[in-house]
Amino acid sequence: MRYIRPSSIEDAVGLLAEAAGKAAVLAGGSDLLVRMKGGFIEPELIIDIKAIDALRHITESEDGFVIGAAVPCAVVGENAALRRAWPGVVEGANLIGSKQVQGRCTIVGNLCNASPAADSVPALVAAGAKALIRGPAGSRTIAVEMVAVGPGRTSLAPGEIIEAILLDKRPPRSGDAYQRFTPRTEMDIAVVSAAVNLTLDDRGVVQSARVALGAAAPTVLVVEEAAEILTGSRVEDKTLDRLAAACSGACRPIDDKRGTVEFRRKVAGVLAKRVALAAYQRAGQK
Amino acid sequence: MMAGIAVSTNINGDNAEFLCHADETLLDVLRDRLGLMGVKEGCGTGDCGACSIILDDRLVCSCLVLGAEAEGRRIETVEGMAQGDQLHPLQQKFLEHAALQCGICTPGFLIAAKDLLAKNPDPTEEEIRFGLAGNLCRCTGYDKIVRAVQDAAGVMRGA
Amino acid sequence: MNFDPSHSKRSFSSVGTRPIRPDGVDKVTGRARYGADFNMPGQLVGRILRSPHAHAIIRKIDTSRAAQLPGVKAVLTAADLPDLTNGDAAMYDILDNCMARKKVLYDGHAVAAVAAIDARTAKQALKLIEVEYELLPHVTDVDQAFAPDAPLINDTIFTTGVDPKPDRPSNVSMRSQFGHGDVDAGMARADFVVERTFKTEQTHQGYIEPHACVASVSSDGTADLWVCTQGHFVYRQHCAQLLGMDASKLRVTSSEIGGGFGGKTHVWAEPVALALSRKAGRPVKLVMTRDEVFRASGPTSATSIDVKIGALTDGTIIAADATLRYSCGPYAGAWAEVGAMTAFACYKLENVRTVGYEVLVNRPKTAAYRAPSAPMAAFAVESAIDELAKKVGMDPVDFRIRNAAQEGTKASYGPVYGPIGIGPTLEAVKNHPHMKAPLGKNQGRGMACGFWFNFGGQTCTDLNIGMDGTVSLAVGTVDVGGSRASLSLVAAEELGIDYSQVRTVIADTSSLGYNDMTDGSRGTFSSSMATISAARNAIKILRERAAQMWDIPVEDVTWENGHAVAKGETHGNLPKLSLKEIAAASGTTGGPIAGHSEIVADGAGVSFATHICDIEVDPETGATKVLRYTVVQDAGKAVHPTYVEGQYQGGAAQGIGWALNEEYIYGKDGRLQNAGFLDYRIPVCSDLPMIDTQILEIPNPNHPYGVRGVGETSIVPPLAAVANAVSNAVGVRMLHIPMSPPRILAALEA
C-alpha cells in the first residue's frame, strides 16, 4: 500500500485513473479508515487530497458558494455566511459523528460514501446543490442526488473525483432545514431524516419547495408530491398533515438494526412536518 | 513489501520524526512507535473518543488519521497538558471532583475539554454535554466530569 | 485468626473524607498503564480467527499455509490445547469458549490463533487459515431456545433440578426454585392480581478498554502474564489449570483496568496468549478489537420473565410468583438462579415462589454484569408492583413501604435479614424534593427499588511500615473504581496516621496470598476488613516495640491516634511514642514491622436502593429524554463518599442505557449486527442529566466500620424506574427492554 499527497487536482485525477480502481481517495478518512480497519477494502494506493489548495476552501461569489472537497464539516459550521444562507445544509453537515469526527469528515466524503443515511446529503438535495466532478475526460457538473445510485455505490466513472459542492445564491425569503431521528442525542446515525428547502413570495406563500428524505430508500429520496403540497401554501397545519402523509407514503424503507419499516415511515412524516415549519420560519425571517 | 514513509511532525511542542506504513493510523504511530501510551484505543473506529488528540487546533480521533498525514502538523496529546509538575487546571479539577473511575477515557476527555474551553471559555452545562458527546465514559455517568469541566473553566477564566 | 469483624467503630477521622486518589495523577497525565500499554522485548502480536457462524461443526482446520508465512511464529488450534473432555465440565467449557474444539457455538467463537512478528503479518496469516464448517441450525432467542422443538445446542445437557431426571437433552441446563409459604392459596385470597410477561434484551458491560494481555512463557515452565482483569489470582488459577501449568510458576500482574463491570472476571484470550507464547518461545501481546469484545467476550443474559403478584385491599402483598428464563450463551450457567433469588428480595412476603430456567442459546457465553441477573428481575417485579399499587389505589412509594422487608424478615431466597436499608431508602424517596417537583406535558415519573447481596470471600493483605514511618499497603483486589483511595483511608484510620502517609498498591500473584476477584461489590468491603485486621496486627507489634523501647510490659502500652501510650502509675508520665519513632528504631528492636491478614470476609451486608426517574417522551417519534434522576442507596459506611457517589451515578447511567437503547441485535443468520459503539448505543454525555445521589448509612453489623458493598446495587432499579416513568408518561405499560423509540412508538400505536 502506498500513500501519496498530490498538490494539484490534475495529479490526483491522474493517479486515480492510473490505479484503475485500486486506489482510494482520502479526504477526512472517517469512512475510509473505518472500512480499511474492518478489512472491507484494501486499496493499493491512498490519494490524500488535502494538500490540494483549491479543495480546501469555501468561497462565496455572485453565483453562490463553492465548498471544496477537503473542507472538514467543522469548518463548514464555522462559516457564518454559509450558515446564514443555508442553515439546513450546515445543520446536516454538523450532525455527522462527533466533534472529533467533525474535525475530519467532509461533505463530499459523506456524499461519496453513498449511505442512504448520510446526514449532509438530504439538505444538499433539497437545496438543489450540484457536484463539480473532475475526471480524466475533464469537468462536469451534476445534481447531488445523481451521485449515489445505491447503498455504497456512486455514478462516478473510474478516475473521477468530486472537486466541490456548488450551492446557488439564495433568493430572498428562502429557508431550509434538516432534522434526523436518532436514539441518542449525538454520536449516531440517522434512522430516518428529512430536509426541506423553500422560497416564499412577498405575501408569505410558498413559491417553490424541495423535500428530501434520508434513510427512507436505497438513496436519498426527493419527494415531488411533498414539494407540490407545500407550494402555494402558508405551511398551515392542514398542509403539514398532507405533507407528512405524502412523505410517509413515498418512503421505501427497510427493517434493519437501526429501525423498522413502520417506524421509518411514520417518523419520516413527523420530521418532514417539523423541518417544513422550521424552513418556513427561517424564510419568513428574511 | 512496503517501504516506510518518513514523517516529520511536532508533538506537544517537540519535533518528532518517524517511519510508518501507508495504512498505519496516527493512533498506532503515537502508541507503538513513539510510546505516547496516554492516547488510548477504545474502538479504532471513531466512536469512543479515547484516542482524541488536537491536530493543528482541531479535535480529532487519532484512529481516523493516518500517520503519514501528520507531516508538518502540530499534535497535542494528554502528555503535553501538564507543564512540568504543574497540572493543567482540567487535570487538577478532574482529580478534585473524582471525574474518573477507571480512567481509560480520561486522556480523551481532557483533550476534548481543553479544545472545548479554548473555543468556548464559559460553556453552559448543555454546551459541555454536547461538546463532550464524542467521548464515551462508562464509569461515571458523566456527572462529575461535567462538574470538573465547569469548575476548570472558571479557574481558567480567572487565570 | 483472632480478628473480630463486628461493627465497633462509630467515629472517624480519615474514613468519610474525600482525598484525591493515589493513582489519580498518573491517570490524568497518561502515565497509568492499562492492559495494552505494556510491552516486552521480542514480543509477538497474537490474533484470533473467529467463526462467522452461529452454530457449526468444525470439519477441518488447515493452518499449514498460515504457518509457512514468513514472520509467523506460532499457529494454534484446540488440538494444541489440553483435551479436558473427560475432566471437569466447567473447565472444559471455559477452554472450549477460549478455543472451539468440536463445534463453533456462536458468531465470534475462536477457532484458531496466530502469533507473528507484527500486526499486519498476523492479520495476513489469519486469512490463510482454512476452516471447513458444517452448518447446524441455530437459535439465538431465549424464548425460541426454551421451546421443546428448538435446535439443540449441546446434546450432553439434561435439565438438572427437575424430578424425574429428563430422558432427553434440551437447551435448559438447570431449573432452580426459591420461596416459602403457599403461593397458590395466597393468590386465591388476593383482591387484586397483576400478571404480566416481560422481556429484556442482551446488553454488554461496555467497558471502554478492550481485553488486552502480554503473555510470556519460558522454556523452564515459568511464565508471566500482564493483563487487565478484575481478578488476577483467579486468572492465574484458571490459566494454570487449563494449560496444565503450576500456578506458582505463573505470575499474573493486573494492569490498570479500563472498566470491567463483571466482564473481566472470566478468561477469554489469556489462555490463548499463554499457549501461543509457549509454542513460539517468545512473549505474545494479544489485544482484542472492539468488534471482538462485543462478539466474543461475555454480555449479560437476555431474559423472558412471567410475574404474578396478588394484593389485598389494604395493600398487603399476599402472594408473589415469578418464572424467569435467562440466556446463558452456549454453556450451562446459573444466571436465572440468581435472578430468581433477587426478584422479590425487597419485600416481606408470606407466600412467594420464584423459578429460574437457564437457557442455552447460540450467543457468546453470558458473563457477570454488575449485580448480574438482578436488574432484569427487578424490571419485571417493580413494573408489576407499580401496576398493582395503582390497582389497589395506593401511591407506589407507600405501597412499597407497606410491603418492604425489614430486620427479621425471611428473605424470599432463604436467609433472615439483619438491619437493612430498603425501608429507609423508601422513606428518603418519599420525602425527597424530587418526588414533589411538577411534571410537564408528555412527562412521567417512575420509581423502583433494587437489591443486591454483596459478597465477601478470600482476602489477603500486607501492611508494611517503612523505617520512615510511612506505610505500604499491598492488596490483591483489583482497583476498579478508586478502592486504593478507600483502603489507604482505612489503613490511616486504623493506625491513626494521615492518609498521605499510606500508599496502597495492587500486588501481583507472586507477592501476596490468594484473593478472590473484585466482584460482588467486595473490593472495599473485604479488603478493608483485611486491612483493618492487618493494621491491628501491626499495632500489636508496634506496641511490643514501644514496650521494649520503654522497657515496660506490653500490657501497659496502648495505641492511640498513631502513638504508643504508656499507661499505669509507674510509667504514666512517659512521653508517647509516634509510629514514626517506633519505625525508626525498628532495626534495633527486632526488625521490620508489618501486619498481615488472611481472611474469608464473611458477613457482607445486603444492599438496597430506591431510584426516581423523570422522563419526557415525544409521542410522535417515541424519543425519550431523561430529565431528572435520583439515587438513594444504603452504603453501610461510605469510606470515600465521592467514589460512593460515583458508583451510584455510574450504575444508574448504565441502567438508563440498558432501559432505553442498548441491545444485542442478531440477524436471522445468527450473526451479531451491531458489534461496535456506533450501533450499540451506550449513553453519551448529552443523553443524561446530572444524577443526584443520597447516601444512607445503615451500618453492616459484620464489618468493623459498618461497610457494605456499594458497586452494584445502583444498576438494579433503573430498568424498572425508567420503565415506570415511560409507562406513566405515555399511559401504556412497557413490557420490553430496551424501550427504544421504535418499541415505544409501536406500543403507543398498538
TrEMBL record, chain A:
List residues of the FAD-binding PCMH-type domain: 1-172
Statement: the UniProt record of this protein carries the keyword Acetylation: no
Q: By its UniProt entry, which SUPFAM superfamilies does this protein fall under? A: CO dehydrogenase flavoprotein C-terminal domain-like, FAD-binding/transporter-associated domain-like
Which PROSITE patterns does its entry note?
FAD_PCMH
**This protein's UniProt keywords:** FAD, Flavoprotein, Oxidoreductase
UniProt GO molecular function: FAD binding; oxidoreductase activity
**Record's InterPro entries?**
CO_DH_flav_C (IPR005107), CO_DH_flav_C_dom_sf (IPR036683), Diverse_Substr_Oxidored (IPR051312), FAD-bd_PCMH (IPR016166), FAD-bd_PCMH-like_sf (IPR036318), FAD-bd_PCMH_sub1 (IPR016167), FAD-bd_PCMH_sub2 (IPR016169), Mopterin_DH_FAD-bd (IPR002346)
Q: Which protein is depicted?
A: Oxidoreductase
From TrEMBL, chain C:
Q: Which molecular function GO terms apply here?
A: iron ion binding; oxidoreductase activity
The record's listing under Pfam families reads: Ald_Xan_dh_C, MoCoBD_1, MoCoBD_2
Highest rank taxon of the organism: Bacteria
Q: Is Oxidoreductase among this UniProt entry's keywords?
A: yes
Q: Which residues form the signal peptide?
A: none
The Aldehyde oxidase/xanthine dehydrogenase a/b hammerhead domain covers which part of the protein?
A: 29-137
Key words, A-Z: Molybdenum, Oxidoreductase
> Which InterPro entries does this UniProt record tie to the protein?
Ald_Oxase/Xan_DH_a/b (IPR000674), Ald_Oxase/Xan_DH_a/b_sf (IPR036856), Ald_Oxase/xanthine_DH-like (IPR016208), AldOxase/xan_DH_MoCoBD1 (IPR008274), AldOxase/xan_DH_MoCoBD2 (IPR046867), AldOxase/xan_DH_Mopterin-bd_sf (IPR037165)
Does the entry feature the keyword Membrane, yes or no?
A: no
Q: What is this protein called?
A: Oxidoreductase
Which species does this protein come from?
Answer: Sinorhizobium saheli
Top-down, what is the taxonomic lineage of the species of origin?
Bacteria, Pseudomonadati, Pseudomonadota, Alphaproteobacteria, Hyphomicrobiales
